[in-house]
Amino acid sequence: MSELESILRAYERASRAGRVAALASVVGVRGSTYRRIGAHMLITEDGEVTGAISGGCLERDVRRHAMWVMQSGSPKRLVYDSTGDDDDAEDTFSLGCNGVVEVLVERLLPTDSYMAFLAAWMRASESAVVMTVLASGPGAGIGTGDRLVWCPGKEPITLGGIGDVEQVRALALSAQSVFASGISSMRTFDTGAGPLAVCFEVIEPSPRLAIFGGGHDAVPVAEMAKALGTKVIVVDPRPGQATRTRFPAADRLIAEEPQVAVDLLELDGNSLAVVMNHNYRRDLAALGALLPTSIRYLGVLGPKRRTARMLADLAARGVVATDTQLARLYSPVGLDIGAETPGEVALAIVAEMKAVLADRRGGSSRERRGTLHERTDPMRDSPRLMAQRLEFSRAAA
Prior knowledge:
It is a single chain. This protein starts with a helix and ends with a helix. It is an alpha/beta fold. The protein has a six-stranded parallel β-sheet with strand order 13-12-11-14-15-16, sandwiched between helices. The longest helix has 17 residues, at about 165-180. It has eleven helices and 16 strands.
């Protein structure tokens, strides 16, 4: 998310200066790749680059194509294949991943509707599926780079080109299945006007992290979480703790007691919390306020026996933690990496939060069976989706 914010800021600077830019987006992957669908890179006409679409293997060639796209105005779809055995082949790129990456490069003018949508979406913090046309038949009436946006509970938003009501309805149905799977993917539909290739990108709002405790060891937690694109809130009623001087990058500072802060924040399933006041009374109050919420992750600093004591004290007051609540409770907080210093502890905490958000166990990658990333869309060949394809074919005929 922080990368997307940087790209939007770079685009705004270029727009204010009246400069043309190009957006390179990963729209398809097969096999092992460094970045997944949804990675973006912005290139301006004066050579400024923001973001990345690989580990550094493709950027130079993509910049070369981007210059042509900025001049011509025509989008370009690039395919980089490193699955072959011939390392000396002219079109082979040293991806180092043994996979295929498909990249769409588009020209961006200062009034681009897609970038305007992304900026508004960042402010609204909503989930969405962005559908980008990659290829279409000659009679489809849709062009490369045309987009449709689907948000749960809202009417689809057309960002150029896709105006047919039946096409919009059929693509929106597919967007729902992609959203349910949670995996961005590229799908090809067989329509009466020829094949239609569409990239379905699932975009989610930034998670919110509420840090209860503004001590010196909370500073690196806030800094690391913020660097990864998390919205950071620091809660501490003590004078001189939750201050802008101590937490310059925090999105919000709250100098209130834990229960008041929890009521103000309205924490939900896209929220995380860490309790690290180094004060038993305030930690107990924070734990009691946070347990009933639906937050995804609740970390408590300190040994197990201390947290067990707090849970017992809360139970004596009638606040008995349910199994669901305990499943979201991580104490001692952080991955087991032998952390000792505040920076190391912060690394362990932020890494554990990332693992929870990704539904991973947080162990060594070499111990994982299978691929590090999901290779396929689990709903691609579902009976429901097959019916949607047939319906789309009939609608476009």
